Amino acid sequence: MPIIDDLSNEIKKQPDKHYRWVRRESGNISTKKSKGYEPVSPQDPEVKGTILEKSHKNVDSSITIGNLQLMRCTEEQHKKNRAKVQERNDRIQSALKAKYLEGGEGLKRSLGKKHEGIKLIHEESD
Q1: Using an 8 Å Cβ cutoff, are 76 and 16 in contact?
Q2: Domain coordinates of the chain in residue numbers?
């Protein structure tokens, strides 16, 4: 989204902060707040003196563009959030791999000796 990218370049990023445009849909802002994000307001140094300060402020003193709101959290909190997502993704990948290998073994059993020429494609990373 070129407009969002251009406006994101206007943000005077503060040290140790992570910025994100968040959809203003039911529960989404609350979810982000529970993960350590807070709204950026027109009075904050990140947007003071930029086009965002004047033309994109909302009645609730947040910076919005259409259905998106500018929020921030600490880099440390962002890393914790990313680590949780990565941990969940790793568990899902591990479960899928186990199911795949289990299915392959079941296929081999069902084929009996006919499976000797068939090799399952999988990658061992352990």
Answers
A1: yes
A2: 2-73, 81-112
